[in-house]
Amino acid sequence: MESLYIIEPGSYMKVSGKSIKIEKKGQVIEEIPASDLKRLTLAGRCSMTGAVLDFLIENGIETVFMTLTGRFRARLLLDAPGHVELRQLQYERLGKKDFCLQTARFMVLSKIENQLRLLRKRRPSAKDPNFKKLHLQLLSLKRRAKISKNLDELRGIEGSASRIFYQGFGLLIKNQDFSFTGRNRRPPKDEINALLSFVYTLFTNEVLNAIKSNGLDPYLGALHEPLSGRPSLACDLVEEWRALAEGFVLTLVNKKMVTKQDFIATGKKKRPIEMAPPFLRALIRTYEKVMSKQISWNNQQMKIRWAIHQRIRDFISYLKTPERGIPKRAIPI
Fold it and tell me: How many whole angstroms separate alpha carbon 265 and alpha carbon 273?
């Protein structure tokens, strides 16, 4: 088992030889050998001993802590192999305004193009006037992004494109039990936003793992400003993958793989709505199937998870030879 998600509230982790045992109410739920485990994600409330923490560090297991609503809380930072020259190059390149703007522009253009692709693919009719209007608005923003003169202007364009896209996203929901009137987060206030937040976090973690595996500094990006605790480069490079995350959520909702009963209204201000543990387990199993799906990528057959790693290597090649740009890839939607 390469990736493990622990979502059971009230569960308890402890070390048993060369394995981790997960218990709840005195019953062993699962036992995982360290040799098989690469990534551990703890969602919600789970207790662990100091011995477990030592075990995770000694075995180099990447560990992420997040809420049941999908908000990132913390990451166990482990010593990584030395990539001093690569990181020096990253700091040098992204320290230059022109290079930073060029890089951020590519990310925004890729994001808008994938938003357009998703709307075209999922819209009920090519003649629908609502989608025609949104399509034209996004195309206009795409043209503006190409000639934007600074990062502030580009960030404003990206924000406007997201607002327009979410209008179309709401029209793509065909399950009458759910509605979407706009994006809200920190915390999400309705079922669709809770799904989006959680799935976005899963995808960001995928990109973050790939960034760290390839030796880059995840905290220095181009489009997102450096902020304490925010992996800005991961937030940058996940942008073009968001349409895949949004398509995944649409599939869950429109195929009625999720119901209203899969959510819990807590009445709490900080987390007004949560996903019920049985549904969360099913969601993660389905997500892992998506990540393991074989796709044609750069003339090779590979899993989506490894395509994300390959995309990070594209970015590294761009850092080394900026004149070649970042190659365009058709993100599977």
Answer: 5
* The pLDDT value given to residue 47: 74
Distance (Å) of CA 110 to CA 198, 259, 265, 331: 22, 32, 36, 9
Of the chain, the percentage scoring pLDDT greater than 90 comes to 50
The pLDDT value recorded for residue 23 is 79
What is the reported pLDDT for 54? 81
Domain boundaries, the chain: 3-66, 86-324
3-66: CATH class:
alpha beta
Identify the CA nearest to 171 among candidates 158, 182, 162: 182
pTM of the model: 0.83
CA distances to 167, 209, 275 from 70, in Å: 22, 17, 10
Average pLDDT, the chain: 87
Nearest-CA neighbor of 78 among 57, 59, 64?
Answer: 57
Torsion of CA 306, 287, 103, 212, to 10 degrees: -60
Specify the pairing of strand 62-66 against strand 39-43.
parallel
14-23: list long-range contacts, CB under 8 Å, 24+ apart: 14/48, 14/49, 14/51, 14/52, 15/49, 15/51, 15/52, 15/55, 20/52, 20/55
Domain 86-324: CATH superfamily, name plus number: CRISPR-associated endonuclease Cas1, C-terminal domain (1.20.120.920)
